[in-house]
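Quick one, tokens below. Sequence please?
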């Protein structure tokens, strides 16, 4: 049996639905049992809507983890990092649970969310409810291909999931950082294509990196490259989707990793000025309004936690 929850490494879908929740009960045993059942409920709904490619997962917030599983905290699992410098600010919001659903049918996501909400009942309160969608050929609403350097194939599992050498207990689990960005598209559109390409460092149509000779200043591409200061790969899988309507729009960014420290440094690299007083220029046109850290346990860990509670 595939031990990781679905939705972590799955290929992109057309529609997404994400619920940020607070737990309203003190009955920890009940919540362990209910949470452990969720991957199976999603599997059953996925079989029902097989053509929709329904997938999803439940993740545990950094603070709630110690209440739910006090004896087993993943190494390096902490709160969302402080990202504040100049006009760039990404304040942390604390949530107990995150439920993410994706499929190629809007109605399948809706039914799955209702089913899970009924299962959890009054034990949770939904604080944020975000519908997201695939825009054009996998582009952000700013018009550029999103995360063109995302790992492909089996490499997705290698960077997103904890392996047995790291931890027997948390094998097939993943660390998750979430940011909900709100774009200022009026200011962005005013730049024009040539200036937008200078900010991103990529061709808007092909997504190819611009030649170094054509680049003026620092770019988003250089600040988000998946190599650290020592030129070592950063294990990061992005599962981002657009959200919004005609009034406000943005991107719901999900960063999965097996090495949270590397992704924290990657985030800081975007927000904090380097030795040349440069930061990610794209942050001048978008603001992260939700910033949270979670852990996505494997199916095996969720099942084991219930067994231990029954002993």
């Amino acid at each position: 049996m595939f031990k990781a929850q679905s939705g972590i490494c799955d290929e992109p879908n057309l529609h997404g639905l994400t619920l940020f929740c607070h737990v309203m009960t003190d009955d920890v045993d009940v919540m362990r049992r209910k949470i452990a059942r969720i991957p199976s409920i999603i599997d059953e709904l996925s079989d029902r809507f097989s053509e929709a490619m329904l997938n999803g997962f439940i993740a545990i917030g950094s603070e709630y983890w110690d209440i739910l599983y006090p004896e087993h905290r993943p190494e390096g699992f902490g709160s969302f990092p402080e990202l504040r410098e100049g006009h760039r600010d990404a304040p942390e919001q604390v949530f107990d649970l995150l439920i993410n659903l994706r499929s190629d049918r809007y109605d399948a996501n809706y039914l799955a969310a209702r089913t899970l909400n009924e299962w959890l009942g009054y034990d949770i309160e939904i604080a944020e409810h975000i519908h997201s969608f695939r825009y054009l050929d996998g582009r952000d609403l700013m018009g550029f291909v999103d995360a063109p350097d995302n790992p492909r194939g089996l490499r997705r599992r290698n960077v997103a999931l904890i392996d047995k050498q790291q931890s027997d207990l948390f094998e097939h689990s993943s660390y998750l950082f979430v940011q909900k960005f709100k774009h200022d598209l009026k200011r962005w559109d005013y730049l024009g294509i040539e200036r937008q390409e200078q900010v991103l460092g990529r061709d808007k149509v092909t997504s190819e990196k611009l030649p170094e000779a054509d680049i003026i200043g620092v770019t988003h591409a250089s600040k988000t490259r998946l190599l650290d200061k020592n030129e070592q790969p950063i294990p990061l899988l992005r599962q981002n989707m657009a959200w919004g309507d005609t009034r406000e729009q943005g991107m719901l960014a999900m960063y999965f990793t097996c090495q949270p420290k590397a992704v924290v440094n990657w985030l800081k690299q975007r927000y904090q000025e380097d030795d040349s007083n440069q930061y990610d220029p794209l942050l001048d046109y978008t603001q992260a309004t939700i910033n949270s850290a979670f852990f996505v346990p494997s199916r095996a860990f969720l099942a084991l936690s219930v067994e231990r509670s029954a002993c």
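The first helix runs from residue 28 to 48. Residues 82 and 214 are 34 Å apart (CA to CA).
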